[in-house]
Structures are given as C-alpha cells and as structure tokens.
Automatic annotation (TrEMBL):
GTP binds at residues 26-33, 88-92, 142-145. It comes from Halomicrobium mukohataei (strain ATCC 700874 / DSM 12286 / JCM 9738 / NCIMB 13541). One of its GO terms (molecular function) is GTPase activity. Keywords: GTP-binding, Initiation factor, Nucleotide-binding, Protein biosynthesis. The chain holds residues 1 to 464 of 604 of the full protein. Function in general translation initiation by promoting the binding of the formylmethionine-tRNA to ribosomes. Seems to function along with eIF-2. Belongs to the TRAFAC class translation factor GTPase superfamily. Classic translation factor GTPase family. IF-2 subfamily. This is Probable translation initiation factor IF-2. One of its GO terms (cellular component) is cytoplasm. Signal peptide: none annotated.
Length: 464
C-alpha cells in the first residue's frame, strides 16, 4: 500500500492543500461514463497501477500521473495541488445530491457534450445547476473520432497537440465546435476553444476529446489542473490533522463488514476507532469506525481480497467506512469525526447540514416526490424558475397519501403529483384515477416539467 499512503506526504508537501473534487455532467449517452473510464484507464497505463484507486465511489488521479500523461503540457513544479479526485457516478443527479457544508461537494465540473448532438435537455439542466451552485466548469466536446474528416493523431500519444490544433480542427469538426461555443454563449457564457482562453474564470474553455480513443483526455486533465491551481487554490486549504469531514457517496454491503458507507473526506483526517456522526434517514447516527478500507491496486484486483485496511485517510480522498449501525445511512448525507469535541455539538452540525437542503413550498401548488433530498431540491429549484408553486415536497415513492394531498388542491392545475426518479405505488395509481389527480413521472426534470406544462396548457385551453 505504498502509493495511497504517500498522500499524507503529498498533503504535507502541498502545505495543507487538498485535491480538488471533480464531477462529470452532461446529457444521457453523451459519453460521461466512457470519459470517466478512459481517464481511469489512461491514468493506470500512464502511472503506477497502485497510484489509482477505484471502486469506492471516487477515483484519485495524482499530479505525477497527470503530468506523465500530458508530457510537456504539464510541468509538475508549476502545481502544488496534489491531483484530481473524480466522483465516479456521473450526472447532475449525483452532483446535486452530494454536498459539502451546504455547497456542492464537487469543486469543479466537466460538462460532456456530444459534438454531433450539441446541447440537449440534460445539458441545459446541468448548466442551470452549475450556474446556481457557481461551480466552475469546462466543456468536453466528446466523440470527435466520429466526425467525418477527423484525422486521428496516428503514432503519437493520445493528446491533441496545441500547435497542430489549428490545422486539425477543420471542416465539420470546426463547425460543430463553434456551434457548441454559440450554444454556451446563448446561455450567457463567454466561451472559446481552450487554447485561446486566457481567463478561465470568465470564459468557458471547450476541449475536443474522444472518450473512445482517449485523444484530448490529457489536455482535459491539464486544463482542469490549471483551472484548479489558478482559481481554487485558496479553497483547497485544509486542516490536515483535524477531525475528518466528508460526504456519503453510497451505502453498500461489503463482505465481512456488513453495511458500509463509501465516502469522500474533504477536510481533516479520519482514523480507525474514531467516533463518527453520519446523516441517516431518521437523523444523525453516532457510531465508531471499525475499519477503513481502500481498494486493492488495480493490478491485484483479480485476487480474492478486494479491499485492504488502512489506518487513516486524509482529505481529499475516498474511503469505505465500516462501522456498526450504518443501515439507515443516507447517500449525500454528511460524515463527521468527533475526536476531542463534544458529540452533541457534532450531532447538531450534522442536523444543520441535513436541514440545509432548500426546498420551498407554498400554500397552494403541486405535490413533488424525488429519491433523495438533493434531487428534491433540484426539482424544486427548477419548478421555481418555471413559476410552478409546490405545496408539498417529500423523498420517496408516490403513495396514496400524496394523491390525497393533491386532491385537496382547489385549482385543477394543482391536482398533480410530479415524481422525479421514483416509482408510483399501485394503490396510488388507482386512487389518482378515481380522484382525477394526474401523476407525472420521469427521470429527467426537464421532461417532467414539459409534460406538466402541456397538461396545464390543455386545461387552460379547455377552460376558454
Ligand atoms: P453516458 O450516458 O453519458 O454515461 O454515456 P456513455 O459513456 O454510456 O456513452 C454512450 C455511448 O456512446 C456508448 O455506446 C459509448 O461507447 C459511446 N461513446 C462515448 N464516448 C464516445 C467517443 O468519444 N467516441 C465514440 N465513437 N463513441 C463514444
């Protein structure tokens, strides 16, 4: 376990600066998963296999690996941030669910856009969320390998060379890339190809990539590193030895350990035997760390043992936490180490963080349901922008109770339940038929609202 252990040294070298946390967003099928896979895969090829961790909800790509992938694009002495930590679950759903002290867990984002397809509904949703959370991002214009006339960089490492770029970005691809730049500008962003952007804070850089061939991926990592170094450095300073603070990414079962949580620690340190407070379905859970687990290096992953124990983990890094009583732990909820503080104080902090999800309701309006607090908040925020009032908002499947509430809404347009990423119970469906309540269900906020708005329009037309 030589490499991950060296994180502590990295942190010390970096004077208490942590790794920026990166999220990948974009429309379905535009290549988010493939891009993450490629980044992991390329990083493994470029670096020591042990340096890359995975299977605990996040992937750390250290600076030396980025610099060996990017060749002369990256001089490691220009940077004092230790690398990049990618959240493995792509999409704006996980982005809005994963919080750190009320803000987004991710410090920076990659918005993936298929060059052939341009902006699509979920691209717009992602942009709305990035704007709302003021998260800096760059655009990965993906699938360049599918554009007619694109001439792959034969025989060279998979990076798009800056010098050659102007010769190679021509014809069809050029047109498509400028379409994306135009769409960004329609949404109020000034944007340009990344090699022409000087100020990434006010301009969005567009990086052409192929998640299939890997071309452009080193450029993408280089730009992310540069952007973080320039604009996020101050926010990355942490209390390295302090009590750990993190977010639950996923609640899973691990053989021999029962229910465990995969978490990202973004401040301080978590150690074996630490007392911790974790956000749960019924409020804070107080428990004690039994084991901290890291995945085996990739090269050894085929062996029986998938994880190995570590004594402690310092921010920012992913870790699997084994502890008693984690059954009700909630994805997106906070994790805090108690150490020498008063446990009640820490419980209060966790409660405050859970209460920090902003879902506004009105006297009259529709009923909304979603699978997590974060997605409920995202739906409520978008409805607010569409000036659609919400009377009641809750996490969970659509139940008869929700239909009963909607039924009491006076206005016909309010007799509706909008369900995001959850199921509708059969009883609820039956009751809705009987009581003339409409249930709209979708996994895409944009489409959900569109269906509801069509419904409202039909009612209004009928009333005229
Ligand atoms: P996601 O829904 O955004 O996570 O998209 P996926 O990563 O699942 O990709 C959707 C499809 O596009 C898959 O069939 C991928 O193999 C394909 N794909 C993704 N990136 C590329 C690319 O750069 N080039 C090509 N040719 N195909 C790609």
């Amino acid at each position: 376990m030589s490499e991950p252990d060296s994180h502590a040294d990295d942190d010390a070298d970096a004077g208490g600066l942590r790794t920026p946390i990166v999220a990948v967003l974009g429309h379905v099928d535009h290549g988010k998963t493939s891009l993450l896979d490629k980044i992991r895969g390329s990083a493994v090829t470029a670096g020591e296999s042990g340096a890359i961790t995975q299977h605990i909800g996040s992937t750390a790509v250290p600076l030396d690996v980025i610099s060996s992938m990017a060749g002369d694009l990256v001089d490691p002495t220009d940077f004092d941030l230790p690398g990049l930590l990618f959240i493995d679950t792509p999409g704006h759903h996980s982005f809005s669910t994963l919080r750190s002290r009320g803000g987004a867990l991710a410090d920076i984002a990659i918005l993936v856009v298929d060059v052939n397809d341009g902006f699509q509904p979920q691209t717009m949703e992602a942009i709305d969320i990035l704007k709302r959370t003021q998260t800096p991002f760059i655009v990965a214009a993906n699938k360049i390998d599918t554009v007619p006339g694109w001439n792959p960089n034969e025989g060279e490492p998979v990076r798009v060379s800056k010098e050659k770029q102007s010769d190679r970005v021509q014809g069809d691809l050029d047109e498509k890339l400028y379409e994306i730049i135009g769409q960004l500008s329609d949404n109020g962003f000034s944007a340009d190809m990344y090699w022409r952007v000087q100020d990434f804070q006010n301009n969005i850089g567009v990086v052409p990539v192929s998640a299939e061939t890997g071309e452009g991926v080193p450029d993408l990592l280089t730009v992310m590193m540069g952007l973080s170094q320039r604009y996020l450095k101050e926010e990355m300073s942490i209390d390295v030895g302090g009590p750990g603070v993190g977010t639950v990414l996923e609640v899973t079962d691990a053989r021999g350990f029962g229910t465990t949580v995969d978490a990202v620690v973004y401040d301080g340190t978590i150690s074996e035997d630490d007392e911790i407070v974790v956000g749960g379905l019924d409020g804070p859970i107080v428990t004690e760390v039994r084991a901290l687990l890291k995945p085996q290096p990739l090269a050894e992953i085929r062996t029986e043992k998938q994880f190995e124990r570590v004594e402690s983990v310092a921010a920012a890094d992913g870790v699997k936490i084994a502890a008693p009583d984690l059954d009700d732990a909630m994805a997106g909820a906070p994790v805090r180490v108690v150490r020498d503080r008063d446990v009640d104080e820490v419980i209060l902090e966790v409660e405050e963080e859970l209460a920090g999800f902003e879902v506004s309701t009105a006297e009259e309006g529709v009923v909304i349901k979603a699978d997590t607090l974060g997605s409920l908040e995202a739906l409520s925020g978008t409805l607010e922008e569409h000036e659609i009032p919400v009377m009641r908002a809750e996490v969970g499947d659509v139940a008869p109770r929700d239909v009963r509430v909607a039924e009491t809404a006076g206005e016909p347009i309010n007799r509706a339940v909008l369900a995001f990423g959850v199921d509708t119970l059969d009883d609820a469906e039956r009751l809705a038929d009987q009581e003339d309540v409409e249930i709209f269900a979708d996994d895409v906020i944009y489409q959900l609202i569109e269906h509801y708005e069509d419904h409202v329009e039909a009612i209004e037309t009928a009333q005229q």
